[in-house]
Amino acid sequence: MAHRLFAWFVIIPLLGAPAALGAQATGDSACVRVSGSEPGLFLSLSRGPMLTGALPVSFCGLEREAGYRLTLDGEGFERRIGTFEIVGGSPRVTGVRGGIAGRNLLLPGWGSTRAGHVPAAVTDDMSIAASLVWLLYENREYRYMRDIYDDMEERYENAVTWEEKALLQSSLHEASREVNVQNDQCTRILLLAGALYAWQVIEPLFVDNPPKSTVGAGGELTVRGAHESRAKAFVYSMIRPGRGQYYQGKEARGAFFSLSTFAVGLVALEYQTQYDYALSDYEICVERFNASNDVAEQLRLKSDAERYWDHLEHEKTRRNSALIVLAGIWGWNVIDTFFAVEQRAPSGAYSFEIDARGASLTMRF
């Protein structure tokens, strides 16, 4: 339902021609009529105030040589954005993908927020921030272990007796294993943060396409929309969970899948590290057993090895369980892209249209 509130005013025609047809200029302002290739498309122009309406629609009072943010969407259509300009009396639409990607490169989520992808930008920022905080914590643990290792290495270099060197060499070997495990954990988290950062930079190059447009006789602009594709949603969610849902307008589900897979992924990484530590303890115990010639010590080391093995199996079960949960949520997120898409309201709750008769304000609800 729509209620139209008419505010009639006088439009000075240019040489007697209707002011809302084609792309005609009056002084520093111009009028443009925009039509769509299919019914159900809504167009919005914003440069401060927003002008929006169902196609076909006519806009007047547009500044020449000024850039307007253009948004084209509708139920069942992809959301397309671009820049609308009137150059030399002719309208044109250009893309903004490079600008969005550049802003995200400088500050994660900045470009996505300006493009209207606020939920996606928020989940990206939360994920990247959590990854970096965790990386700082794990790196601090790494530096602590590395300081211990460096101190042992210095003591080994200064040792004067063979027995002291042999004891320190064994301790250095065990310390180096722990340092390597912790370093691997830091590397994995760094790769995760880098992947999240890189994706939010390159994503606009795929999802923020401008609408295709042509200029017809009299300067009338025709824009073409694209129907939403479940195949695209499938691919987006396969690459980055939740992105297919955002593409389809299912923002609540998109946030759930984005954050849940990220959280379970962090748990899986932590369990992987604990598994690596348990494996290192077991292998060190086996090495001691093989190097010992004392029967009593071998019996003790055998008992320790059995205990380490049980702990290793426990950590392996926890890691595998986390990976199974992660795979389950990831798979659920992909399958969800084939479910019915929620109805999505077009941009703007108000439609302000100017034509040769005057102006009308339409409120949709």
Which terms would index this structure?
365 residues, alpha+beta, 5-stranded mixed β-sheet, 5-stranded antiparallel β-sheet, 9 helices, elongated, disordered N terminus
Short description:
This protein is of the alpha+beta class and 365 residues long. The protein is built from nine helices and 13 strands.
Structure, described:
The chain is α+β, with helices and mostly antiparallel strands and 365 residues long. It has 9 helices and 13 strands. The strands form 3 sheets. Strands 2, 3, 6, 10 and 11 form a 5-stranded mixed β-sheet that branches. A 5-stranded antiparallel β-sheet has the order 5-4-7-8-9, with no helix packed on it. A 3-stranded antiparallel β-sheet has the order 1-13-12, with no helix packed on it. β4 and β5 form a beta hairpin. α1 runs antiparallel to α4 and α3 runs parallel beside α8. The longest helix has 42 residues, at 295-336. It is elongated, with a radius of gyration of 31 Å. It starts with a strand and ends with a strand. Residues 1-26, 345-357 and 360-365 have low confidence and may be disordered.
